[in-house]
Amino acid sequence: MQDDVIKIARQWKENLDIKPQWQEISHISKKHKAYWAQWDRLVVVDGILYRKWINTITNAHSLQHILPHTFRREVLKMLHDDPLAGHMGIKRTTARVRHRFDWVGYQTFVDKYCKRCIECQKRKGSSNATRASMKTYVVGETMDRVAIDI
């Protein structure tokens, strides 16, 4: 099942030889414009829209499946919640998603998903570091004690 944004981007790549002009797409959504901006990196294989991705460190090439909205939560369950996935946290889960898939706003989606994961919240400790209480110093007269930040 395709969502409308991906369907239109796929139709562009299948039916058009050149990138549509800005005047043709300026009135449509930001998501459409994001795929339009990546025109040269998009490719259709067997009716599925992919994005060409090059790892800048290893110089390896791969195709990222542009994932429809209906499958995103299911994919994150496999890449984050599965016992073999290990609830790796936001950075590692984002890296795992980025390696195989792409969609507009995937980083925000992964971030929210991981922050709402009950298992992760149970394991993660409190972010409030314990602090020593502030002390008051009693002085006899003005200028008995002076503090300077260096």
Automatic annotation (TrEMBL):
Name of protein: Integrase zinc-binding domain-containing protein
Q: Which organism is it from?
A: Mytilus coruscus
PANTHER family (UniProt xref):
INTEGRASE CATALYTIC DOMAIN-CONTAINING PROTEIN (PTHR37984:SF15), PROTEIN CBG26694 (PTHR37984)
Q: Which InterPro entries does the entry link to?
A: Integrase_H2C2, Retrovirus_Pol_polyprotein
Q: What Pfam families does the annotation carry?
A: Integrase_H2C2
Domain (Integrase zinc-binding): residue spans on this chain? 68-125
